[in-house]
Amino acid sequence: MRPIFCLLVSSLLLPLLLRADDGYRLWLRYDPIPDASLRQAYTGAISEIVIPENPRPLVASARDELVAGLRGLLGADIPVVTKATRDNALILGIPRDPWIAAVVNEADLREAGVEGYVLRRIAHEGGHRTLIVANRDSGLLYGAFALLRHLQSHQSLDNLNVISAPKIQRRLLNHWDDMNRHVERGYAGFSLWEWFYLPEIRDPRYRDYARALASIGLNGTVITNVNANAQILTAPYLAKVAALAQEFRPWGVRIYLTARFSAPIEIGGLKTADPLDPAVAAWWQGKVAEIYRTIPDFGGFLVKANSEGQPGPQDYKRTHADGANMLADAVQPYNGIVMWRAFVYSPDNNDDRVKQAVTEFAPLDGKFRQNVIVQIKNGPLDFMPREPFSPLFGAMPNTRLAAELQITQEYLGQSIDLAFLAPMWREVLDADTYANGKGTTIASIVDGSAKLQHPSVIAGVANTGTDRNWTGHLLAQANWYAFGRLAWDHQLSSEKIADEWTRLTFGHDDTAVSTINKMLLGSRETVVNYSMPLGLTHIMAEGHHYGPGPWVDKLGRADWTSVYYHKADEKGLGFDRTATGSNALAQYAPEWQKLWGNVETCPENLLLWFHHVSWDHKMKSGRTLWDELCLRYQQGVDEVRALRRDWDSLKGRIDEERFTHVAQRLARQEKEAINWRDSCLLYFQQFSKRPLPTGVEPATHPLEHYKQILRNMPGF
Amino acid sequence: MRPIFCLLVSSLLLPLLLRADDGYRLWLRYDPIPDASLRQAYTGAISEIVIPENPRPLVASARDELVAGLRGLLGADIPVVTKATRDNALILGIPRDPWIAAVVNEADLREAGVEGYVLRRIAHEGGHRTLIVANRDSGLLYGAFALLRHLQSHQSLDNLNVISAPKIQRRLLNHWDDMNRHVERGYAGFSLWEWFYLPEIRDPRYRDYARALASIGLNGTVITNVNANAQILTAPYLAKVAALAQEFRPWGVRIYLTARFSAPIEIGGLKTADPLDPAVAAWWQGKVAEIYRTIPDFGGFLVKANSEGQPGPQDYKRTHADGANMLADAVQPYNGIVMWRAFVYSPDNNDDRVKQAVTEFAPLDGKFRQNVIVQIKNGPLDFMPREPFSPLFGAMPNTRLAAELQITQEYLGQSIDLAFLAPMWREVLDADTYANGKGTTIASIVDGSAKLQHPSVIAGVANTGTDRNWTGHLLAQANWYAFGRLAWDHQLSSEKIADEWTRLTFGHDDTAVSTINKMLLGSRETVVNYSMPLGLTHIMAEGHHYGPGPWVDKLGRADWTSVYYHKADEKGLGFDRTATGSNALAQYAPEWQKLWGNVETCPENLLLWFHHVSWDHKMKSGRTLWDELCLRYQQGVDEVRALRRDWDSLKGRIDEERFTHVAQRLARQEKEAINWRDSCLLYFQQFSKRPLPTGVEPATHPLEHYKQILRNMPGF
User: Fold this and answer.
1) pTM for this one?
2) Is residue B111 annotated as part of the catalytic site, yes or no?
3) Among partner residues B68, B231, B671, which is closest to A712 by beta-carbon distance?
4) Which 3 state secondary structure label does DSSP give B560?
5) What is the pLDDT of residues A465-514, one digit of tens each?
6) Per the CB < 8 Å rule, is A75 touching B8?
7) Inter-chain contact B71–A15, Cβ cutoff 8 Å?
8) What is the ipTM score, two decimals?
9) Structural domains of chain A in order of their starting residue, each with its CATH number
10) How far is residue B543's CA from residue B176's CA, in Å, rounded to a whole number?
11) Is residue B702 reached through a cis peptide bond, with omega within 30 degrees of 0 on the bond before it?
12) Which chain A residues are within 8 Å of B12, Cβ to Cβ?
């Protein structure tokens, strides 16, 4: 048999090692470590895996992950035992074990906290041991992933000594998934949740999804759209949700649901949903009790109320606090929470749309229950490529506040354009509200260190779907990864996250790593340059939000149009939000008012957000606004061409399937960038009446041509 | 290096061989042949692959398939050469090669025809050679797949001598895919065609799709829904279609499109779509020229006109022939065809719906161009679990007729219930129309042997989608496979097809093969038993068509309701289609009228289709109709339970992932079967006013409960 077996093996191995990669494995690839000596060093340093007998589910998951990971990375099956039997054991320990307590002290464990872990290589009886120690099972699971990431990153095990704990308690994905499997603002296929087939029929992908979340430290997911459907709260659907919860639970991922405020009417048979009506409160209490009977570890509700047509407490002349507190009281006995979204702008409020969240919510500061978290988008408008941070973060000192970031690229090229978002999120997390004086960053408000603690929440609107590679654009996996890593540790730098992800996903070829890191780190600014530079916002095409639409002027409401936002006229361009205009600026700390209020000191990347600027205004470059604007659009196009050159230089260094996947998207992105440049410059030129400066390529078609393009997108 | 390499290899191999199977590979698995001696025998008999230099695309595909297939099956890399260099060469030959002409004679080549192949093992200079010989490249490709199937089936190569040619020229899938990626009557995810990303971005799955079609002999595909969208004919979309055609071409798969009859108005800017208006004809001629400039091997149009609200020639008082011929003249210069669907029933025609196709089309016999094929669903109603064949097949002797079969299980449990459809399709293909006397089967009419030849067409409405396993239910892959095999050779038995597919998909374990074959072959009749036994039809739930809806009585039109079809009353059950009723029977040959017209001789599986039968009618079993009906529903449920026992008996004989996938669906199917039985019996009992016979389980809920169930299906 042997010769034939070997023949069989080697030839099977060939296609395996060379095989194209469809991206399904994400950053959990566990391919063999190419360097034999390193592989041997690791194999020598991990002789067996020691876990307690009858491990609980999360520990069993940690064990399975370590076994599969080490088999892949080292090409060896590391034995699993319940007591250390030899030197170089890898031990998953709990502090109650006295032997462990001796080597991991109280302070270490306090630092590890509820969900964190200690990774430590220690000398032991003349040899060594590797420890993963945590106060809870979840910490052991996160520690196992951290150790595997350490090996995948080819770092040494000698003197391994890491203590890591998440700074924010509830690290959640928000899925804007409709129950018909359409994903609102989803660009990676369709919803992963197969409602019609549940609960009996369970896609194995549910477990892979939860495992991916756990691998980057996420511990919860809101599986339904904020534009909610009350059906999800009916008994047949709760049984389906319970099936999903069962699949997610071994990976420490809890389920949350969106609550449609009018559910008591739609599925409860009541005449009203007035939050102060005892019958309504009673209905929710009964419904919540039913939910927790079905899903004992249910996390709580996310609510979009009185926003964009959603029902809410204001329909009954009640406040957001009235509505949120009623739901909060219902989930409180089960330690559930209510995440109440502050993304509101009223049809009967004609004030600058970006001011309305503060106007509505600031007066309610301090009126919310302790298990209510007001969830705020990073900017005051709506996930634009760049906007200033939302002033609401600084306006509610006595309310728990969560940050809602958007992983899916609704306004940043969806799953065609490359846009690594960590740098954008860093801008937000580092933004100083000055709420308790200098240094009151949004990160410190969200993690509770600035003031109110527990529960703390960070939410990312998911970019996942049924596409084989999960995110549509392979490189968009980096945004999912980055959100998870920042949710765990909001002090990580964009460079660190990009380098981690690139190495996990593409290996350690120096040229490939440095090239891909460079591509990622500049990519978001590139999108800003060819779509909405210098503080322009919301000038995209209507409806699907893909591509340019500066001409959009007639929609259901003024503040849905582009002209409302760019205010282009013969004099100039931009929205005056200073005292001479909407004075949205007044919602910020004096330090910001001083900086942003002056057209001379306002950073140019926010200039047109805060000011209506004359076409001839001198920019720092010495050019006029018009010339600068044109050159920014051209720069964006040039940068996409550079991205293509960079990627093409990697041909042969990464597998053909992934190379082609990205190359095709970059080719399309160049067309779209040119489309943005030509559409916007032709449109704005109608007002500026100035020629294109040298260096800017003229459009090849008249404006009308560009207005047509995106009308050919049925169903998108 | 070697020891480490071996360690690496064996441990990588382990998960590979044991790895769960997600079904993506379909029947093209090419896993190593377990029997070492057989593997050795094959490896000895195929020493090298000989193909001509600079092979054209289809031959290159054949080469690649053979190399990949033999590597997988034999674990050996068989060298590819352009001239035979040693004994046991496998030679892909063309008859122009004189050496080949000597061993494959004229008669053989005539038999192989345009697309067929000769597979032959011959003695040569004291040794042996294996030949794949064909008149065209496509034959070499089909021959390569046939040879691999031969090896996958573990058949001997000694004395290999096969000549095979398709009996029907155009073997097509019909995709009812909307351009927003919804699939009408699709139950395997969403449309594979990513319109927004094309033409630049091309899912590798496009090639895998075309390869799968080629592997079962299909050579064309209609990629858009018969409920058509004119957008597909605009220049931007034709560029996208051309990209798909480019991906399909190396596998010999040609693209066809559905033509929306009102396209000249919607995208052409004309005031009319009147087929006799010269401007309309000219517009189509220009559009067709544009299509062929973009897609030189474009196949032609499929049209649904004046049916279910679709526009058509009757809107202008013209006939179906007027409309079809106008389009046929446009594509004729390019050898294109027009497939004109006969699925019509008019809102202003109150006659029995099943009669209307003959009423409308029979008078047009002989009036269609030679490149028009009238495409007829297998039955006169609409893909019911069982109906008699469509009488239209026998009513148009001077018109080319195509059979439209439905692979997707719209009325047979979609992708939850197991229903192997080959036995149903055999009933249709073998049905004798008596059009030219006894033996004028539908198969002989469709393949042209009965009368009119060229072009001949068979169409199957696809059951494919974005689900990883292509068809939603893993075992529904067998229906895709069966359609392809029957399209190639409509004389294959259901047993042969089932056995082929089972062995290709699950291997050769005797118990597994015989059990799965048995499950497949009985499964369609089981669905008939628990849903629409004894000739009942169209009593499913409204809209989504999943599950029972015998109570459906108020819809847009009477002939969309269930009560229209079952006619249940105090006297009895069933639709009288004899002379005393609608006399649809008169559309069939006298032989059928005699057999079906008499309630005593009418086969019981069509009894209620043709007759309104009293509840007390004595059935062949001696039971009353009511008791027989009840027992059939119970039998259906019992048979599903048997399917579950059969499948459970295979645990451990097939991989866990596929075992669980099917087990979960069978568990759900049992619930649905019980739901069918209880819903229908409770409902019909209101009329029969008779008790359930012994042996039939009583419903656990009142009728109202069952009416509610399926209302909780948002978006499905």
Assistant:
1) 0.95
2) no
3) B231
4) helix
5) 999 999 999 999 999 999 999 999 999 999 999 999 999 999 999 999 99
6) yes
7) yes
8) 0.94
9) 2-164 (3.30.379.10), 170-500 (3.20.20.80), 528-575+612-711 (3.90.1330.10)
10) 16
11) no
12) 13, 16, 32, 72, 75
